[in-house]
């Protein structure tokens, strides 16, 4: 007996398409991350429809990024540098817009957590 389709299937597909769109924006907009959105989109498609997950994994650049992440191969060193610089710039620019000191501290800690994760927890992919 085949498994019943999930009631959440349309939600997962909608989330997957939205995240895929953000991922493609990240490929063309400087300073806007794309890889994380593609990874999340692949996870959403895996829950919604494996056919769309396979489509995303078959994209020339995107599929390799997702496969590398899933296999634990990590990020190229250049990508790590770019990601960390973007985090520093984004946090630095946005801190002036947060009026409450506690919010500024919390946002700074979020940025530091991102840098920590990228530098120490994410493996560096060797050529």
Shape: globular
Straight-line distance between termini: 46 Å
State Rg.
17 Å
Mean pLDDT score, rounded?
87
Q: What's the tally of helices? A: 6
Q: Please state how the strands of the largest beta sheet are arranged side by side.
A: 1-2
Give me the strand/helix succession: HHHHEHHE
Strand content is under 5%
Would you mind describing this structure in some detail?
The chain has 127 residues and is mainly α. The protein contains 6 helices and 2 strands; from the N terminus they run ααααβααβ. It has helices at residues 9-28, 35-48, 50-57, 60-70, 77-95, 101-121; strands spanning 75-76, 124-125. It has a two-stranded parallel ribbon. The N and C termini lie far apart (46 Å). It comes from Deinococcus cavernae. This is DUF454 domain-containing protein.
């Amino acid at each position: 007996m085949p498994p019943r389709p999930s009631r959440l299937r349309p939600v997962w597909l909608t989330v997957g398409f939205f995240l895929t769109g953000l991922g493609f924006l990240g490929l063309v907009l400087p300073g806007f991350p794309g890889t994380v959105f593609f990874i999340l989109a692949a996870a959403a498609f895996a829950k919604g429809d494996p056919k769309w997950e396979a489509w995303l994994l078959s994209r020339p650049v995107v599929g390799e990024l997702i496969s590398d992440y899933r296999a634990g191969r990590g990020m190229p060193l250049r990508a790590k540098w770019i990601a960390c610089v973007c985090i520093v710039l984004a946090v630095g620019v946005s801190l002036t817009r947060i009026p409450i000191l506690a919010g500024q501290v919390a946002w700074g800690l979020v940025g530091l957590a991102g840098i920590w994760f990228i530098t120490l927890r994410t493996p560096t992919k060797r050529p």
